[in-house]
Amino acid sequence: MKKKLSIQTGYPKPEQTNSKPGKVYLVGAGPGAAELLTVKALKVIESCDVILYDNLVSEEIKSLFPANISKLFVGKMKNLHSVAQQNLNQILVDYAMKGLKVCRLKGGDPFIFGRGSEEMLTLKENNIDVEIVPGITAASGCTSYAGIPLTHRGISQGCTFLTGHTERDPDFDWQAIAKLDHTLVFYMGLSKLEFISRNLVTQGMDADTPVALIENGSRPSQKVVSTKLSDLLNGNSNHQLKSPCLIVIGQTTELREQLQWFEGDSPVNNLQTEKLAPYSWKRTMSA
Fold first, then answer.
1. DSSP letter string over 223-266?
2. Half-sphere exposure at residue 242, Cβ-oriented, CA atoms within 13 angstroms
3. pLDDT tens-digit profile of 169-203?
4. Is 76 a catalytic residue?
5. Catalytic residue of the set 23, 49, 54, 223
6. What's this model's pTM, rounded to 2 decimal places?
7. In the annotation, is 94 catalytic?
8. What is the pLDDT of residues 39-67, one digit of tens each?
9. Of 23, 76, 223, 228, which one is the catalytic site residue?
10. Which domains does the chain have, with CATH numbers?
């Protein structure tokens, strides 16, 4: 029999509102801009009894939280977890068992590097009603706001999402990844820039492959750095970027110069070692 965990000290015990168990909604908050919330996500936020939210939920979205409900920060940052995942899973169970409507709000999409499936498994094991509310994942939302298509005919026929956030250095098949004709998107990889670039170059990817680093994508403070894979061998020292930051690797990033449309309050920051020529779609477009 599994040992039941108590709610971590500092989190209020929920008051029972119903004799029946409540329901938990695992909600994607998208990349940060409040306008990118889905209609359903906003409805859940406005009608729930308690919100448990992540570090990546923006201030703009937090301003939409109802004033009369409990709001609990359960976010994780590098080397700093406000609450252990195992304890968080139990908090969700405890709140639902009190008959509450619980909104578990996550940046991006709950099922893409968001541990939503881990939380849902625990809820299911405890016979708690649970529903997923998908959100716009960062790879889609942030690249769109940076003017970078993930795919483009004649340039990239696919995209691959990877995480740089692992207990140890990511153990990917780097040779296979380096040979993909895909746009590569690394989540949570800012501290692994040198490791990622070194493995890709070592396994055959051209060191001149263009790269875009997107900090705070879709938010007013959005910052985009255009560079090359070889430049990342120095890690983040040249750019002084902060999380959340998305790493986009591939030829489609060159289209930003022609497709950019949103800059927020931050100027374009171009730290390329040499200026890349505007991409001409005519040279590869097939009929």
1. EEEEEEGGGGGGTTTTT---SSEEEEESGGGGGHHHH----TTS
2. 5
3. 778 999 999 999 899 999 999 988 999 999 999 99
4. yes
5. 54
6. 0.84
7. no
8. 999 999 999 999 999 999 999 999 999 99
9. 76
10. 23-135 (3.40.1010.10), 139-283 (3.30.950.10)
